[in-house]
Amino acid sequence: MSAVTAPAAPVPQAPAFSPLYQQIKALLLKGLEGGEWLPGQAIPSEVELAARFRVSQGTVRKAIDELATENVLVRRQGKGTFVATHAEQATQFRFLRLLPDDGSPPALQRRLLECRRMRAPTEVARLLALGVGEAAVQVRRLLLAPQGDDLQPVVLDDLWLPGTLFKGLTMERLQAWRGPMYRLFEAQFAVHMIRAEEKLRAVAAQADDAALLAVPVGTPLLSVERLAYTYGDRPVELRRGLYHTAAHHYRNELS
Amino acid sequence: MSAVTAPAAPVPQAPAFSPLYQQIKALLLKGLEGGEWLPGQAIPSEVELAARFRVSQGTVRKAIDELATENVLVRRQGKGTFVATHAEQATQFRFLRLLPDDGSPPALQRRLLECRRMRAPTEVARLLALGVGEAAVQVRRLLLAPQGDDLQPVVLDDLWLPGTLFKGLTMERLQAWRGPMYRLFEAQFAVHMIRAEEKLRAVAAQADDAALLAVPVGTPLLSVERLAYTYGDRPVELRRGLYHTAAHHYRNELS
DNA sequence: ACGCATTTGTTCGTATGTATT
DNA sequence: TAATACATACGAACAAATGCG
Lengths: 255, 255
What we know:
- 2 copies of one chain form a homodimer.
- By secondary structure, the first copy, chain A, is of the alpha+beta class.
- The first copy, chain A, folds into 2 domains: about 20-85, Winged helix-like DNA-binding domain superfamily/Winged helix DNA-binding domain (Arc Repressor Mutant, subunit A, Orthogonal Bundle); about 100-250, Chorismate lyase (3-Layer(aba) Sandwich).
- Helix content of chain A is about 25%, strand content about 35%.
- Chain A contains 8 helices and 11 strands.
- Chain A has helices at about 20-35, 45-55, 55-70, 90, 120-125, 170-175, 180-190, 205-215, and strands at about 40-45, 75, 80-85, 100, 110-120, 135-145, 150-160, 195-205, 220-230, 235-245, 250-255.
- In chain A, the strands form 3 sheets. The first copy, chain A, has a 6-stranded antiparallel β-sheet. Chain A has a 3-stranded antiparallel β-sheet with strand order 1-3-2. Chain A has a two-stranded antiparallel sheet with strand order 4-11.
- In chain A, a hairpin with a 3-residue loop joins strand 2 (about 75) and strand 3 (about 80-85).
- In chain A, helix 1 crosses helix 3 (about 55-70) and helix 2 crosses helix 3 (about 55-70).
- Chain A is globular and about 65 Å long.
- Chain A binds a DNA duplex through helix 3.
């Protein structure tokens, strides 16, 4: 009853087989990676997928269940199963963990500082798995929190993106965009972030960073280095944020 | 076919019913909370539970599935399903996210500084949901990383525990214990941590903290404030850690 | 070394409930 | 109301891992 042909050359030490639902899951991921279904769109119904893959509906369900818990897909009873997108409010704060200490909802404004193409520095190239001398796009921006009548800088973000994937990303296009940056990446560059790893440290503000964040040199800042991945565990964004945590904190849930 | 009686007075706005497997899940949690099965022990098999609750095995499975993804239970094929414990290496680092920058496995030594009973300070009492003037236990300790031939302090931890739950927790008992502290709490005080919330900030080292961590005053430190919960979402530990992140970092996974 | 019983893991099928359009 | 889609629940069978005799 195998709908999916077994791998041609099973690796001896690795598990030589995988459960049907894992194979289905892999096929769904391939479809997502190939752009068959785009963020926000519905994938075919469970019965339809079951028919296509020649497996039972329950097996498809189990594959989708896992993708749903990984936030790759979103199930909606009565409507269908949808490709996750960074457009929704819900998924909005999955990647931004900085919250105001007073419990108010996060409301940060953006201020774009820079966007330029360059050869990727060696460290950046290594982390993004780029060849030496390959192009990269660097973006710099501030996030500001309303503070009484004016705005207080809270986050200084430095991003590096693979130049080949983000051809045509300019200051103007970034400036014109209203909405989450990851949504822009989805809509205009077909790059969807599904996962990220972050390394957090406490550092002292350097002169230039201090000036931009409007804090004294030496102020303790939360350094957040993020490597974000798209389908197939391909790293597609390196981000270094400096968070001024005087009135904000980084929230994390352990379980 | 309802094995579990429906709630007597369904709240109008809230979902007036709950799926069978959710009811089973609640019953399992009640059993865990009541100490029917202790950390490390196996719970009854799926068929046995199905018979006890008068539901199908699949329904029990789904309840256990959720508890397993929440790390409350651990499934082991061929052996059974076990109550999660902080004794195992696997669950060891679920709550300690500090890793050496060089990628080596974490190997921290403990040095106990203090353990005393006191009236809970108001802020501590509030977070631990204690009454005013109720007893608390405060613990202070250092975590040190091997650095060449000697040890370098990396973490300064301050803990507060409800005095009523931790009657008899002394410096000597802490000192004598070999193994994770959360395991000691399980084994000797029947308090099992299943979840925690953390707030991270960058702060400057104060004089006393700086001395203990062997860093200059003003050194940026990562402040980690943790509130840990046991079954039934009861907060049972407040912890404030100061991490020296010169050669270590706090790792987080976003998905 | 072998087989057997136990337990979880996978897969199928079917029926019914609930939400949406 | 009807059609569609996901959600819940049941039952059955076999596979894989484990431990014991």
